[in-house]
Amino acid sequence: MYPIKPGFLVSVKTEVVGGCQYLRQDVRKEHTEEGGVEQQWVTTKRIIDEAEYDKAGKVRSRARSEIARRCLETPFGLVCREDRIEELRQAIKLAQLLAQEFNLEARYSQISINVLMGRIASDDVEAAERIAEEMRNLAAEITQAVKSADVKAIRKASDQAKAMGQMLDEAQQIKVNDAVKAAKAAATRINKDVIKANKDLEAILPKLDLSPINTMRLAFLDVEDGAECEKAELPKGDLQRAAAIELEEEVEEVA
Fold first, then answer.
1. Where in the sequence is the domain holding 192, given as residue range(s)?
2. Beta strand 7-17 with 77-81: parallel, antiparallel or unpaired?
3. How confident is the model at residue 113 (pLDDT cuts 50, 70, 90)?
4. What are the pLDDT digits (tens) for 164-221?
């Protein structure tokens, strides 16, 4: 199993309590022929002090942003690399200070900031397996998004892959970065030729170099242990050939 960079899984919960009320008024309640119940009601939100409530929302957003900026946004949630942990701790202190300062002056609203961190070790097999699975899924999402000419989905999956890649060792990170570049280049080409110029997607697909995306997916194939990983790894030439063959098959399916 390839090594991963040590870090922390960060769970952040920010909340504004008070300052508004929700009033529910039942409109009707009827029994259906099937024996069920159909209900309808109207909910009214009443803000006691609009200026204070708006400020609470802004302070809460800034507090969370201070923490999130020190982390990677991944499909598993926020992850902080070990080399940025001191930055994260200072950001948490700042976020809590912002909440405390607001709470001292506020009359109706209160902000709470809670952070939990779980360590991810460099030799954490389970974490590495989950990351590998997610990277394969992201490669599949990117490929499917290209087939569907979904530029937004391509870029979203690419950004997630890039963030996840920062938790990997240098060799794996290079493959991820190459895949991200290829995906974004494909998104740009699709946006220009298919969406704006209204050209046929089937004519554009063979011109896109998606081999780095397939290479990334192949790099995260399941193995039972590290020893088998070395034995199962394809030579460079065979890996590129396998990626090229798979790409040709995918293009044929679309055509």
1. 125-254
2. antiparallel
3. very high
4. 888 888 888 899 999 999 999 999 999 999 999 999 999 999 999 999 999 999 888 7
Assigned domain for 2 exists: no
Overall pTM > 0.70: no
- Judge whether residue 152 has pLDDT over 50: yes
Given 65, 92, 120, the domain boundary residue is: 120
Same domain, residue pair 57 and 89? yes
